[in-house]
Amino acid sequence: MSKILTVSPSPHIHSGESIHKIMYRVILALIPALVWSVFVFGIDALRVTLIAVAACVVFEYVIQKYAMRITPSVGDGSAIITGVLLAFNVPATLPWWIILIGALVAIGIGKLSFGGLGQNIFNPALVGRVFLLISFPVQMTSWPVNKQAGIDGVTSATPLGLIKETLKSGQPLSETMGDLPGTMDLLLGNIGGSLGEVSAILLILGGIYMLFRKVITWHIPVSVLGSIALFSGFLWLINPEMYMNPVFHLLTGGAMLGAIFMATDMVTSPMTGKGQIIYGMGIGLITIAIRTWGAYPEGVSFAILLMNAVVPVINSYVKPKQFGGKQ
Amino acid sequence: MLKTFKNGGVHPPAHKLSADRAIEVLEIPKTAFIPVSQHIGAPAVPLVKRGDTVKTGQIIARSNGFVSTNIHSPVSGKVKKIDTLPDSSGYPRTGVVIDTEGDEWIDTIDRSETLVKEFSWSGKEITDKILEAGIVGLGGATFPTHVKLIPPKGKKAEMLILNGVECEPFLTSDHRLMLEKADEILVGTMLLKKALGVQKCYIGIENNKPDAIRLMREKTKEYPEISVVPLKVKYPQGGEKQLIKAITGREVPSGGLPIAVGVVVHNVGTAFAVYEAVQKNKPLFERIVTVTGKSLKKPSNFKTRIGTPIADLIEAAGGEPGDTGKIICGGPMMGKAIAKREVPVTKGTSGILLTGGNETKRKEQKACIRCSRCVSVCPMGLEPYYLMTVSEKQMWEAAEKNHVLDCIECGSCSYTCPSNRPLLDYIRLAKGKVGQLVRERKNG
Fold first, then answer.
1. Does A267 contact B at CB distance below 8 Å?
2. Cα(A122)–Cα(B232) distance, rounded to whole angstroms?
3. Taking CB atoms and an 8 Å cutoff, what residues of chain A touch B424?
4. Which tens digits make up the pLDDT trace of B35-59?
5. Who among A3, A9, A13 is closest to B424 (CB)?
6. Stronger pLDDT, B24 or A150, i.e. the higher one
7. Would the CB atoms of B256 and A273 count as touching at under 8 Å?
8. Band of residue A1 on the pLDDT scale cut at 50, 70, 90
9. Is residue B132 located within the same domain as residue B276?
């Protein structure tokens, strides 16, 4: 008697792709920027990242096991990403207990309250970040000295913060130009700011890796950055004394981090290329609108969260092109 | 730039283990089980009864309607019984069981190997011979070939496309046939062309078969109306609609047939069968079957009589490896897993694949992370993740509105899903239900 055969419907093979492989590629893509942030902000950057990651993983495990009573899924690596991204969005000097609160909000409310991975509408790390920004505005905007930039004093303002202050005081932008870092400093990360927003070039490197490994497609990063450049360029051409140039907007305030790592979160972005472009353009426009006319110097987080909310609508209206469908 | 279809598609590893194995003639089975339904359409009606003596090539079941075809005895011997036995679908099917005695062919068949190039037949004569010989699409779809040669009223064929893509991993039967029977395939193609009344013919071959492309190019110098089109490797390019898109840029409309864009597609194996039927008077009772698998001792291509138990083929390829978990009729992407090794080779059996160990088991299903890979690989422009959701919730109207009936069941979505979600299983369920609803609506 020979062995009983397995019978199941086709396909009988699988690509071998899995959630944790995708997630670990994202983590790998984040590492260069993380290393640079440690270089720039010292051991504090590592401290913030480790606390955030550990907190996210532990909160996910505990909530899933004891509150939701389901098998914890921390092995998939998504909680680690939430932790790293949360850390990337806060100053290196943030006290540990605030990080814990941020992690709890990110995982507990941002992710698990919706049902867990794949169910959440908003980017969990950004939910945590925005919650902290509103609840602890002082700590969240006390930027540590960038050791590389060599700025004196205890805290240094972010470039976008400087712009906002200048404009609030009614002065033209040319007054503050001398205090702003140059394009090269912005690219390399010789500026003040959150952990992960300081080196545009390493974030781009991570993005290229993710593109290459097919974790993300070009649609979202290109449409976010493209619309930021177009919209801010348009304003700048109208009045360079009132509005900053597009290169500055692209390289500051987490535009790169947002466009490459946060807006591309697959769970909270649209399903079709066309939909992703609409979503990305929305993020770019809202970002510049907030930076230009809003109360906050920075708008990427809010822009992404606002567009996250629109994703279900985009998905129900923007469909892929049906093969052989009516034109 | 090599041609290919535009949207979607995947690149599963090719594993063409038997590509270098010349076609061998498999021993005639001791007992043959020949289902009367080996094609899409009405089952044929048995013409023989228990105790009858039959010869190889003798008609044993008659076509029953327009979309149906004849069945011939693949062996000579005595009819043991007419019975219902399971075929590769797993369902019991009516068929003729014949105990083999010798191998005596009907004397109308020309058994010589000489290449015959007789093109004086009329289109009607060719079509009639094809029906008489019981030829169906040998790529696996088994649609009766003569039906495709008679376009519906008001439709006109402009070109013939010959399908030599063989995009399923592991399978090599079409590849070998192109290498070993190129002349015959081209004569068959000319006959098909004539029957259709078209001027132009393209042969699509993926560029992972450079030897076949080279040979066919060489041989087609004699036939200026036939051109070879090398294609960039991408699954499911062997799908009719994808192949037409790749070669002509035309899209068969949703719910329509290739003839709607003036194209008729036939498989290279079918063209060979047409050659044999028209030039050699030989009905379709044997075909090339690839027997393959990573653990198999001797992956092979066999010229096999219809009705041969799959167990015989496996034996001839070195026996069943110890780690075998699943035996698949066809390729790994679209083939059917069979439960019993006694299942016979039928006209649609292009290959037998033995998979083992870990390959057999499906991995644990995880939550959808909305990565949109299923959407980007779907060659039909569907949203598999959404169709699965509405199917789970039994929202059949939503499934219909989102074109579930367009699905060609290529399996690219399930293959790609990083969460191992059984997308195609649920889409099939929805297709069945929606198809039923559509029929009910039509019948009032």
1. yes
2. 40
3. 9-11
4. 999 998 999 999 999 999 999 999 9
5. A9
6. B24
7. no
8. very low
9. yes
Beta-bridge partners for B354: B327
Name the domain boundary from B280, B295, B324: B280
Q: Within a domain: residue B337? A: no
Does residue B401 sit at the A interface (CB-CB below 8 Å)? Answer: no
Mean pLDDT of all residues in A139-166 = 67
Cβ burial B49-59 (10 Å sphere, 16+ → b, else e): eeeeebbbbbb
More confident residue, B9 or A37: B9
Residue A210 near residue A29 (C-beta atoms within 8 A): yes
Report yes or no on B28 lying in a domain. no
Q: Are residues B407 and B274 in the same domain?
A: no
pLDDT above 50: residue A152: no
For residue B252, give the chain A residue with the closest CA: A324
Query: Domain count of chain B?
Result: 2
Size of interface A-B (CB pairs under 8 A): 159
Q: Find the domain containing B168 and state its range.
A: 127-280
Q: Does B335 fall in a domain? A: no
Q: Which long-range contacts (CB under 8 A, 24 or more apart) does B47-52 make?
A: B48/B73, B48/B79, B48/B82, B48/B96, B49/B79, B49/B82, B50/B79, B50/B80, B50/B81, B50/B82, B51/B78, B51/B79, B52/B78, B52/B79
pLDDT in tens, B310-326: 999 999 999 999 889 99
Closest approach of A20 to chain B, Cα-based (Å): 9
CB contact under 8 A, A15 and B10: yes
Which residues fall within 8 angstroms of residue B49, CB to CB, at 6 or more apart?
Answer: B79, B82
Residues B139 and B255 in one domain: yes
Average pLDDT, chain B: 94
Rg (CA), chain A: 21
pLDDT one-digit tens code per residue, B335-358: 999 999 999 999 999 999 999 867
Look over chain A and give the mean of its residue pLDDT values, rounded to a whole number.
88
B393 and B273 in a common domain: no
For chain A, the domains span: 19-140, 159-317
A18 touches chain B (CB under 8 A): yes
Nearest CA to A56 among A80, A23, A76, A27? A80
Q: Is B10 an 8 Å CB contact of chain A?
A: yes
**Contact between chains at B254 and A17 (C-beta distance less than 8 A):** no
Q: Which of A28-37, A243-252, B253-262 is predicted least confidently?
A: A243-252
User: Do A12 and B372 lie within an 8 Å CB cutoff?
Assistant: no
Do A11 and B333 make contact, defined as CB atoms within 8 angstroms?
Answer: yes
Q: Classify residue B285: in a domain, yes or no.
A: no
Last residue of a domain, one of B225, B245, B280: B280
How close, in Å, is residue B249 to chain A by CA atoms?
A: 11
> What ipTM was assigned to the predicted interfaces of this complex?
0.90
- Residue A325 to residue B417, Cβ atoms within 8 A: no
Record: contact B326-A7, CB cut-off 8 A: yes
Specify the pLDDT at position A174: 74
B339 touches chain A (CB under 8 A): yes
Q: Is A323 within 8 Å of B341 when comparing Cβ atoms? A: no
